[in-house]
Amino acid sequence: MKNNNNTTKSITMSSSVLSTNDTFPTT
Fold first, then answer.
1. Where in this protein does the record put region Disordered (predicted)?
2. Closest residue by Cα to residue 18 from 6, 26, 4
3. In a 3-state reduction of DSSP, which class is residue 25?
4. Could you read off the pLDDT tens digit of each residue along the chain, which spans 27 residues?
């Protein structure tokens, strides 16, 4: 079940990036 933790971390990071991108759009 160690992999599960890694996946959750990845999803959290992705969400973080999306939030940052939403606040500061890179165009």
1. 1-27
2. 26
3. coil
4. 565 666 666 666 666 666 666 666 665
The first and second tokens of residue 17, run together, are 């990036």
Q: Encoding tokens for residue 12?
A: 């959290």
Owner of token pair 């991108």: 21
Tokens of 22: 């939403």
Give backbone dihedrals phi and psi of 26, rounded to 5 degrees, phi first.
-100, 100
Write out the two tokens for 19. Answer: 């939030």
Amino acid at 13: M
